[in-house]
Every structure is written in C-alpha cells, then in structure tokens.
Write a structure and sequence with these properties.
335 residues, alpha/beta, six-stranded mixed sheet, 11 strands, globular
C-alpha cells in the first residue's frame, strides 16, 4: 500500500532538518498544519506575515515562536533589503526599479519564495488565501525553472479510500492545474516530469497512460492525433519510460478493460501516471475521482522548478497543509 506523503517522509532521514516557508502565516489552517508538521518532525517552519497577527494565531493554538517555528514579517525583517536587491537584479530587465523591488519583496508570497531562492528555506507552500496565479507567478519569477526542465506543470496525487476494491492504487494525475491546452511536445514534457514525480512521491515505477476519448485508433480526430504525437515524442526522447497511448481512462485503469481494448499494451490496465490531454479533462477528472470515487487528492503540486514551491486549494484543511509540507520536503530530498 502506498504511503501518504507525511508517512513516507517519516521513513526517510534527511541529513539536515528541512525548512519550509509559508506565505499565509496568520491563517488558522496554515498555522495548525504547520505546527502539526513541525511536531511530527517533518520540517522546521517559517511563518511569513504580519508579526502581530501570526503570533496572535500561534497563541490561540497554544504555541509560540521558537527556533523551530519562526515568524518573519517582510515589513520589519532584516532580510528584506537583501531580498530587494536580489529581486531588482532578477527583474530589472522587465522594467522593475529598486522601489518596485522593495515593494515586491514586502509582499508575503514573494518574500516566502525569496527565502527559498536565497537558501533560508528548503521549499515554500501557499494558496490557502492567495490565488494559484499568485503562487505560480512568484515561484517562476523568484525561484525559477530547473536547469533540465522544459516547462513548469502540475499534478495531483490521488490515493484510494480504504473501502476501494482490491487492486486500487495510488496514482498521479497531470496536468490538472496549470497548462490549459498542451501541445504534443508539452504533453511529452509533462509525462517525463510526472514520471520523475511518481518515483519520488509514490515510490513506484511509472506506468504512463496518455489519455484520450479514443483507445488505439477507436476514434479519429485532431485531438486524438495530439495525444499520439505526444506519445511518439515521449518515446523518442525518453525511450526507457513505460508509456502507452492513446488510451481511454477505463482501458488505462482496469486490467479487464485494458486487456480487451489494448491487448498488446504493457501499460493498459496498470497505469499509475495519467496524462490528460488538456486542463478541462484533467481538472474535471481529478475532481470526479475525489468527490465520486472517494480518493484523497493532494495538490496541485508543481514540477519543473529549481526548488520546491507548491499550491494549496483555498478550501484546504490543516491536514492538507501538513501533507503539502511533506510533499515539498520529499521533492527537495529528490532534488
């Protein structure tokens, strides 16, 4: 049985205690999730926000600032000048002057990302209050893309409920949060990044299904061609990956259907990495799996960044925050 991120992280032993910055440090859910993560030994925490508001919320939850749970207020932090200088150098080619740089790093989301860029934190998590656009923009602008990444994409980790039938498995769904209409090349890049994420976070060898409304030529359409072209590029650039397509979801997921619709496929019926053809399909698919199928969904998790930065749903719970902290630390260990 696949372990949830915090359970998996407890089986590892990082040489140094990771540090995760949270840009919504006064939100009650964020504080509760962060305290649980710190108490469980997953990471030390930096809560970014108005210092009085953060400390008030900590006190409400029976905690206080310490070496393991720090409070950073960008308006008063001794690091803000350093961060402003760095941000100016990063963004001056986009017309950002020193005054705009100072103003930018005083925002909580940019400050939290800058903590990661400058090595004060291992990774960052936000999104309980900020929009996905805010979180992604700051991550790309401040942390930047990994040297070997062609793009930034996202995924959800999907974990079956205890009541699931035998054979149900944890899966990775991508892209369900960022790339609206990926090209064939982008589909292949999303698949390669997702394979790496599968190994790191599910501790499983990826079996990649390039999803469509068609299975092995059962329908003809330009949308199907996009998926088959993406698979061809994937096989050309990463021939070691176990991938197949185009596959309908039932053919990818159920052995009985996969053996009938795609009898020669090693992936059909056993896929654990589901690559959706567009954001409509991915977002709808993960929510149906979660709300109707009862799967636990963790994400959206970002991939392709130089260092981890992850997004939360604005409807997240404290437990979601703890799990995303664990995901962020596992990504850092993998890096």
């Amino acid at each position: 049985m696949t372990l949830l991120p915090q359970e998996l992280l407890k089986t590892t032993a990082p040489s140094t205690r990771p540090v995760v910055s949270l840009c919504e440090g006064s939100d009650p859910r964020v504080v509760a999730g962060a305290l649980a993560a710190q108490s469980a030994g997953l990471a030390n925490i930096i809560l970014v926000g108005d210092a009085d508001a953060v400390r008030t919320e900590l006190a409400k939850q029976g905690a206080s600032e310490s070496e393991a749970v720090q409070v950073h207020d960008p308006l008063t932090s001794e690091l803000t000048a350093e961060f402003a200088s760095e941000y100016f150098e990063l963004r001056k080619h986009k017309g950002v002057d020193e005054a705009k740089a100072q103003s930018a790093v005083q925002t909580h989301v940019v400050y939290a990302a800058m903590l990661v860029r400058k090595g004060y934190a291992t990774g960052t998590v936000g999104g309980a209050v900020h929009t996905t656009g805010d979180i992604v923009r700051s991550a790309i602008q401040v942390i930047g893309m990994a040297p070997d990444a062609a793009m930034v994409s996202s995924f959800f980790l999907m974990y079956p409920p205890k009541s699931a039938p035998e054979g149900a498995r944890a899966m990775l769904y991508s892209d369900c949060g960022l790339v609206i209409d990926p090209s064939p090349k982008e589909l292949s890049e999303i698949a390669k990044a997702s394979a790496k994420s599968c190994r790191a976070l599910l501790q499983s060898e990826p079996k990649i299904a390039m999803l469509s409304f068609s299975t092995k030529g059962s329908a003809r359409h330009a949308a199907v061609d996009k998926v088959t072209e993406g698979l061809a590029l994937l096989k050309e650039t990463a021939p070691d990956l176990d991938a197949d397509g185009e596959l309908q979801f039932d053919a990818a997921f159920l052995p009985s259907v996969g053996s009938r619709k795609a009898p020669d496929s090693q992936v059909a019926g056993h896929a654990n990495v589901m690559i959706f053809p567009n954001l409509d399909a991915g977002n709808i698919g993960y929510k149906i799996t979660q709300r109707v199928g009862g799967y636990a969904a963790i994400g959206p998790v970002m991939q392709g960044l130089a260092q981890p930065a992850n997004d939360l749903s604005r409807g997240c719970s404290a437990e979601d925050v703890t799990e995303m902290i664990a995901v962020t630390v596992l990504q850092a260990i993998d890096n």
